[in-house]
Design goal:
alpha/beta, Rossmann fold, four-stranded mixed beta sheet, about 25% helix, about 30% strand, globular, Ribokinase-like, PfkB_dom, Ketohexokinase-related, Carbohydrate kinase PfkB domain-containing protein
């Protein structure tokens, strides 16, 4: 019997430092938080966590620092959640990306301060080493657009040449104009509230209708992510 195919999530893993405060800190003040914790973060990495909790087998595919003090924490957490990471791309002499997240306990707002000193992004040459027969679904985080387009084009050609079924989804989150080029390759598109607003849409209905008109290829789903 062949092994069950995986859902591959391609994108970022980072460290999240989450601090909950009674209210948002005043600039140049000294304030205590009421709670804090450290966790593995990054959109693609978090997607894997959710998929495992829902009972789906999945794999994280991204870059990671071999020399960062946080690397062991990340790897052990993948093992804890039974997330496959066999094809992760290691880099030397760089730091793990880190996000400081401030949660305002009064209104639930979430402020994220992200830092990535020098960890390289995924490249197409990394992606083409994968055996796509291992996957039933590939989800791409919308980042490093030029390289991600190469990956999407590669998957499209592979599907055409092999006639294998493989669902492709893309997440467009950041309010940047170039990432819209990714959605034409996707069967499923996840659109953030920030990206929808950036494109002039005021609500979910406007966003779905507007992007349905723009996308020339078939789009089977559009989900608006809110914080």
């Amino acid at each position: 019997m062949s092994a069950e195919k995986l859902i591959l999530c391609s994108g970022l893993v980072c460290i999240d430092v989450i601090q909950t405060c009674e209210q948002f800190p005043i600039e140049d003040s000294d304030q205590r938080c009421i709670d804090y914790h450290l966790q593995r973060g990054g959109n693609a990495s978090n997607n894997c966590t959710v998929l495992r909790k829902l009972g789906s087998n999945c794999e994280f595919f991204g870059t990671i620092s071999r020399s960062s003090s946080f690397t062991r924490f990340i790897i052990e957490d993948y093992k804890k959640h039974n997330i496959v990471f066999n094809n992760i791309v290691y880099h030397d002499d760089c730091e793990a990306p880190l996000s400081t997240i401030i949660i305002n306990n009064q209104n639930g707002s979430r402020t994220i301060i992200h830092a990535n000193k020098n960890l390289p992004e995924l490249k197409f040459d990394d992606f083409r080493k994968l055996d796509l027969l291992n996957y039933s679904w590939i989800h791409f985080e919308g980042r490093n657009v030029l390289e991600t387009i190469k990956m999407l084009e590669y998957v499209k050609k592979w599907k055409s040449d092999t006639r294998n079924s493989l669902t492709v989804s893309v997440e467009v989150e950041k309010p940047k104009s170039d990432i819209i080029n990714l959605i034409h390759f996707a069967d499923v598109v996840f659109i953030s509230k920030d990206f929808a607003t950036f494109n002039g849409y005021k609500n979910m209905e406007e966003t779905v209708h507007g992007f349905s008109q723009k996308i020339k290829t078939r789009m089977t789903s559009c989900s608006i992510e809110t914080r």
